[in-house]
Amino acid sequence: MQQDIMTVAAATDKINQGRTLLLAGDEHALRQLPRGNWLGGTIPYFISHAEGGVASRDRIFVTDISGVVAGIEIAQYDQDSLARVYTEAPPRGFSFILIPGMSKAHLSFALNAPNYKGFGTHPLVGWIAGVHLDDLGRVRPKVFNGLTGSVIEEGALVLKATLGPGKVAEVGIINLFEQGDGDTLTFPADGFSAEEVLVNGETRNFADYILTRRLDTKLPLVADYYGAMVNISFQGIDRAAGRVKFYAPVFTGIRYKHARPLADYRTAFQARVAEEGSVAEERVIFSCNCILNYLYSELEGKKTEPFAGPVTFGEIAYQLLNQTLVFLEIHDI
Amino acid sequence: MDVPSKSHKAWMDIVTGKRLYALRFLAAKILLGRVIRSVSENPSLDNINASIEQLRNIYKKNIDTPSVQQDLITIFGEEEPCNRTS
């Protein structure tokens, strides 16, 4: 099994064996690990093959990529140099990125990644590190470089993996949300929050609009990117300020619609996986899902086969996504 | 498999939104979500050519990816190799 939840001692054994690992865990657990070929981010929520959704502060979710990579290096970027993440990608492999949640790099990547030079020219996958929900506002998310032992709260770490011959990486997503039949929403400015929205072309206060229409803010805004549905999740509504906050930025010119409700996440998820058909479990080496899907769809104790992985504060498939399962496949060619 | 030259008419049809294809390669779909809007707002030849260059580069750099190869067949069909590259 390439992905599993395990004790600190078991993860330590793997590191000491020289395995190449992508790790997720609570800060206290990650700080106990020795140096080695690993990159890790803080989050204490996971979905495992054996237990389904689980919250654990003392265990670590381990993705072992030793079997597919021929070599790795880990690079650190700040919010500005991150613009080179595509042009500095390994020529034959993939880049795995971890960014601390609420950091400058998080905000910068969210806003600017679609315009980075070379966007999409190399596979880029990863996630936004978070914290236990009880620690929100008290503890900062962190990202760990196992090679050097450094721990950062600002910036980003990118594991650049070179694949062995005859292998190619591909990034995929499973997003259960689709555009509903309601109004078309556009925004006059890019950003993580909005006061004004154009509702079918008519300017309105967005907070008023949501409250008047009683829109369920557990359902995201959805944009259709040439058939790929991209979500913007609601963080909250500041009634006094008349401002709506998001977990990812809205962009000008993109047409959003409020999502169609899901009857049941797991049922819809299984149906979508069956529809996809081409996602073979043995090819999936990494996946992650969103904390909002975990919470709103009550995934604790529930499985999302064939996918397992950390439950994150944001998913990255070329750019920042919300309420979406992201996965990385390795194909033999 | 080769990636057709940027002068191939199909590239312009895609970035201008004149023709829609059921594509599979995620990066291309995300890019097209922005590019078609951009070309719609600014249909200058420079912008169209830059958009074609960007889209073609994504396919070229990911040429070994199975969904890229499927997309190229979807867009360009099974053309003779001499028609595919310049």
How would you summarize the topology of this molecule?
The complex is a heterodimer of chains A (333) and B (86).
Chain A: E1 3-7, H1 8-16, E2 21-25, H2 27-30, E3 38-42, E4 45-48, E5 52-55, E6 59-64, E7 69-77, E8 93-100, H3 104-112, E9 124-129, E10 143-145, E11 150-152, E12 156-163, E13 167-174, E14 185-186, E15 191-194, E16 196-199, E17 202-205, H4 206-213, E18 221-225, E19 228-232, E20 234-238, E21 243-250, E22 256-258, H5 265-276, E23 284-290, H6 291-296, E24 309-312, E25 315-317, E26 319-321, E27 325-332
Chain B: H1 9-15, H2 26-41, H3 45-61, H4 66-76, H5 81-84
Helix pairs in contact in B: 2-3
Describe this protein's structure.
The complex is a heterodimer of chains A (333) and B (86). Chain A has 333 residues and is mostly beta strands. Helix content of chain A is 14%, strand content 42%. Chain A has six helices and 27 strands. A six-stranded mixed sheet of chain A has the order 1-6-2-3-10-11. A six-stranded mixed sheet of chain A has the order 5-4-24-23-27-13. In chain A, strand 16 and strand 17 (202-205) form a beta hairpin. Chain B has 86 residues and is mostly helical. Chain B has one domain (9-84). Chain B has helices at 9-15, 26-41, 45-61, 66-76, 81-84. At the A-B interface, strand 13 and strand 18 of A face helix 2 and helix 3 of B.
What attributes does this structure have?
heterodimer; A: 333 residues; 2 domains; 27 strands; 14% helix; B: 86 residues; mainly alpha; disordered C terminus
